[in-house]
Amino acid sequence: MSWTSRLLAAAAALVTLTACATPVGGTAISVARTNATVWADSVCGTIARFRAGALQKPDLDASSPHAAVGLLAFTNRFAGVIDTAVSELDAARPAPDPDGEAMITKLTAVLGTMRETVETARRNLKKANPNRASALQKAIAPLETLAEVVGPLDRLDAGPAIDAAAASAPNCRTLQSAT
């Protein structure tokens, strides 16, 4: 598998696992359901925007002498996508339910780890010989671990109140149907 294929596979795994973490389902009804639904819709909107940004393929040709520039642009863009998601999740606080707050904390922690991984690859790319494909492949190797970093997202438990709110939230329903 080429290094660009591995990079895209890691990004696809990341997005798939993130989408699986979307809070959906449940039947609990609460007095604050409207606020919880608005909150869940906001969080799912953030995840959907993150997903769309993470799925954008890097514009590069591995055999091109400009591959390093394309990879650097990709890592810069991906870091920005992560930063935006973290900012939007922080803006969604406080959650209407302690389980929702715990979910935001977990999502933010995973995104922080992802950001560190992308930053490592970006630093490596700046130091790599741009004329050697093997050097570029080695530079982006940390990105291949993103699927492992994201693994805990498929086990997030949003709790019954958040699940019920997400079941009514348009962005959550759209996100669930996209997976």
Tell me what the structure shows:
The protein is mostly helical. It is elongated. It has 8 helices and no strands. It starts with a helix and ends with a helix. It has one domain (3-177). 70% of the residues lie in helices and 0% in strands.
Secondary structure layout plus pairing:
Layout: H1 3-20, H2 33-54, H3 67-91, H4 98-127, H5 133-140, H6 146-150, H7 160-168, H8 170-177
What's the overall geometry?
Answer: elongated
> For the CA atoms, what is the radius of gyration?
18 Å
Number of strand elements: 0
Give the topology string: H per helix, E per strand: HHHHHHHH
Global mean pLDDT: 78
Number of domains: 1
Largest sheet, in brief, is: none
| Low-confidence spans | 1-32
- SSE-based structural type: mainly alpha
Question: Helical residue percent?
Answer: 55-70%
Q: What distance separates the N and C termini? A: 25 Å
How many helices does DSSP assign? 8
Strand-residue proportion: under 5%
Name a few traits of the molecule.
single chain, 179 residues, mainly alpha, 8 helices, 70% helix, disordered N terminus
Please summarize what this structure is.
The chain is mainly alpha-helical and 179 residues long.
